Amino acid sequence: MPGATPARSRHDDPRVRDRLGVIRDIKRQLVIDAARRVFEAHGLEGASIRLIAIEAGCTTGAIYPYFRGKEEIYAAILSQTLIALKQFIEQHLARHRRPIDRARAALAAFYAYYKAHPAELSLGLYLLRGAGVRPVGLSRDLDRDLNGQLRTVFDAIIAAIADAGFDRAQALTVDGVSHAIGLLVMDGTGRLRIFREPADGLMMDYLERLLPQQ
Amino acid sequence: MPGATPARSRHDDPRVRDRLGVIRDIKRQLVIDAARRVFEAHGLEGASIRLIAIEAGCTTGAIYPYFRGKEEIYAAILSQTLIALKQFIEQHLARHRRPIDRARAALAAFYAYYKAHPAELSLGLYLLRGAGVRPVGLSRDLDRDLNGQLRTVFDAIIAAIADAGFDRAQALTVDGVSHAIGLLVMDGTGRLRIFREPADGLMMDYLERLLPQQ
Question: Do you know which SUPFAM superfamilies this protein is assigned to (chains A, B) (predicted)?
């Protein structure tokens, strides 16, 4: 119809755009939550976009606008985990005033978070590389993004340890984090029971040795 | 044919029995080796007796006399791993005479074995329990047997540490083993690269702090 002013696209209206954004976020999160359940039930290898769609109650075609494949959904879950982990550590830091207590609390919180969320630890460990069990094919970009997020988690711990006056705060952080993961794995696989020493006590003892009162 | 002496069963002849035993062991090992490759390619969830049979070049019916299911094959792999790990540790112990060197060598060998065999570490970690990723359903008996084998590995390390004059040798062993596993996992997932500190150096530094010259 020549001469008629073209109707303004609904997408140009900021209020409509906001509402569409909210719906988009909700739908995306529904897919992520469904994928978590599928990964827990079937493992990463057994999971597929088809199974995730069934669990989310949608078609596979409704997932692809949000994620190109299960690797991207997996990365999104890990990313949300790392955000929650960082908040958890910050909350624990806020509960203490003495620098030495804050330093220990940072590492204790890292341990406690994964102790309380074994599924998230399991999912994270699936990244195990090497000639071994087939890793999930995270793209270089996704891998770099996740490493960047993990770096900010570690930076919060490093800062707390440095503030308590320790030299080599980064090396102490690597040690503490590695030790926590090792204990959690030994505990999670049931292999720690051999020693009849509870993981929580072992972690607290270790922290006192790693970060002694100065 | 009444009156005829029944032919003596071939299985009553010890030489035949020995040879049948050898063949049985070879066939069993072929299944285990095929299963390793299938687990590495498809993960535990993706593996099936059918896939293992295809990889081994036999029928599924040829597997069931040896193993009731993939869990039993998985347990057999872990069992062989633990035997090799124990031998590796003993070989490293034999290279040193000073008790302090033997104590460190025991834990260093534990770390080095899994560093050299990431697939075996990955397979072992699949046992991760909790509300997380579905664990392989090892029966109570298989689980107890594996824990018993792992116990003998740890006992060798504990003995070396105790011989070096350390108190609490068991606690030091749990610490050292947990730390090694944590570093290997961080290294295997590529997450250690964030810190630009190589896992081997971190492990050796840790061992010197854990087991200082006395």
Answer: Homeodomain-like (SSF46689)
Half-sphere exposure of A103 (CA within 13 A, CB side): 25
Distance CA A40, CA A47 (A): 9
How many angstroms separate the CA of residue A97 from the nearest CA in chain B? 28
Residues B195, A131: C-beta atoms closer than 8 Å: no
Q: Read off the pLDDT of each residue in B130-149 and give the average, rounded to a whole number.
A: 68
Contacts of B45 in chain A (CB under 8 A): 42-43, 45-46
Tell me which residue has tokens 């072929």. B30
What single string gives the DSSP state of each residue in B148-212? Answer: HHHHHHHHHHHHHHHHTT-SSHHHHHHHHHHHHHHHHHHHHTTGGGGGT--HHHHHHHHHHHHS-
Interface contact A181-B179, CB threshold 8 A? no
Nearest to B171 among A118, A191, A197 (CB): A197
Average per-residue pLDDT in chain A?
A: 86
pLDDT greater than 90 at residue A82:
yes
Buried b (16+ CB within 10 A) or exposed e, B90-116: eebbeeeeebbbbbbbbbbbbbbbbbe
Domains and CATH numbers, chain B: 10-67 (1.10.10.60), 69-214 (1.10.357.10)
Query: Is the pLDDT score of B134 beyond 60?
Result: no
